[in-house]
């Protein structure tokens, strides 16, 4: 299972706030913190128990002991202590066909909370989950213009703090905030190299200081991938490629149930594969990138160019008037209204993209390829040409292993993933 390493401050916050605040339990809490600081075996086992419940849901002591390869008396002792400290709840007897009815144990949802922030080009999404992973509060499409400026960063912090102020929970129980950022991100060091990179310090450190809560960051496509893996269309598959077709183009890679980040967290820059012999300058500064012809940015540019050359669309007047900037959502809506020109361009992008995805399938031999991001909201208009091109350009034996499906979480994949990452970053692998 995919887990991030953590630092001691996050662990300290986690176990500090997870425990009830009654004076009687203060000594227990301090004892556990000391165990963690010294790396005691008991503390590590308790973290393993919590991690198991996060990813597997409630279970009996017998099942838990088998999973962790521990004796039933040992697990019983730990579960008893963690119930007393408020980490775990007894959810009653499990119904069986006969014999004794064992008790089900699972996480106490009110032990702690996590916030996820998913940054888009013209908006942000903010969500709050409880310790069990249930979405408690969700705000979508909060207006925000993503620019690489100090003012934009200040606005981002302001919006997050406004969200925290309005949620109906004790803010002391917010254990971590994870923010999805586009481009090259090192989640372990907390550095962002594409967005908000105007300070020498790690972005995560800057955000922690300004917001006043522990903050971690990760790449937006990995966030979407993780969201889909945890709560989306993944049904037990362990080798997965998630293709994020939004303004940019990136992929998330899961190998044997673990997200692959690369040495510095820079994996997945699929859009910057040099494919085309064109003179279009990509935002990375190079020419010929896949993203220049197969992305939301490409769709936006090509549509405007063709309408300006005289082709017709239901967006013609909108574009020629040059009032407000055309959004990607407007183009997607026009595709779904069966605008011929918009459909034609989306299908052309799907064909170009499918040819390159075929190469990924040949290399990784995945069980599942998930088409996500904003352009996935066009449904079959984008997925069918992708599938056709994959069949044409991939090896027959290899592509038979790979199912190609559309994201289940759709525009919520990123925010779900951000929340889940905020939680997973509290635990060691």
Commentary on this structure:
- With 429 residues, this protein is α/β, with parallel strands linked by helices.
- It folds into three domains: 8-110, Arc Repressor Mutant, subunit A (Orthogonal Bundle), CATH 1.10.10; 113-225 and 414-424, Nucleotidyltransferase, domain 5; 237-407, ATPase, nucleotide binding domain (Nucleotidyltransferase, domain 5, 2-Layer Sandwich), CATH 3.30.420.40.
- The protein has helices at 8-18, 26-38, 41-56, 61-68, 72-85, 150-166, 203-211, 220-231, 296-308, 316-321, 328-336, 340-364, 380-393, 396-399, 413-424; strands at residues 88-93, 103-107, 113-119, 123-130, 135-143, 174-181, 185-186, 191-192, 215-219, 240-245, 249-255, 258-260, 368-372, 403-406.
- A hairpin with a 4-residue loop joins strand 4 and strand 5.
- Helix 8 (220-231) packs across helix 15 and helix 12 (340-364) crosses helix 13 (380-393).
- It starts with 7 loop residues before the first helix and ends in a 5-residue tail after the last helix.
- 42% of the residues are buried.
**What is the straight-line distance between the termini?**
8 Å
Radius of gyration: 24 Å
Q: What structural class should be given to the helix and strand makeup? A: alpha/beta
Q: Characterize the biggest β-sheet.
A: 5 strands, mixed
What is the CATH architecture descriptor of the largest domain? 2-Layer Sandwich
Mean pLDDT: 90
Give the strand content: 15-25%
Low-confidence stretches: 1-30
Q: State the CATH class of the largest domain.
A: Alpha Beta
Write down the overall geometry: globular
Count the strands? 14
What portion of residues is helical? 40-55%
CATH level 3 topology of the largest domain = Nucleotidyltransferase, domain 5
| Arrangement of strands in the largest sheet | 5-4-3-6-9
**Fourth-tier CATH superfamily name of the largest domain:** ATPase, nucleotide binding domain
In total, the number of domains comes to 3
Report the total helices. Answer: 15
Order of helices and strands: HHHHHEEEEEHEEEHEHEEEHHHHEHHEH
